[in-house]
Amino acid sequence: xAVYLISYDLNKAGKNYDGVYQAIKDSSTGxxxxxxxxxxxxxxxxxxxxxxxxxxxxxxxxxxxIVIEVKNNKQGWLPKKAWDYLNExxxx
Length: 92
Known about the structure:
alpha+beta; 4-stranded antiparallel β-sheet; about 25% strand; globular
């Protein structure tokens, strides 16, 4: 099982991007983290290409995103509840 960080710029103002969000959730094992506006961290049984393809199917040609596999080597400035979720559900 892999952990992926997904970050994006969705560029159509007013467009409903629920399909993108659902593609990200569906690419996960049901465990995902979305505390920052344009960033998700998911646990997945899919390859990075499969996750990328799922998201690409829901984006427009002027949207941009990146999917990166991450390891448990993290640092940052987040609320305690965000760190707790990451440590208890994502990086276990």
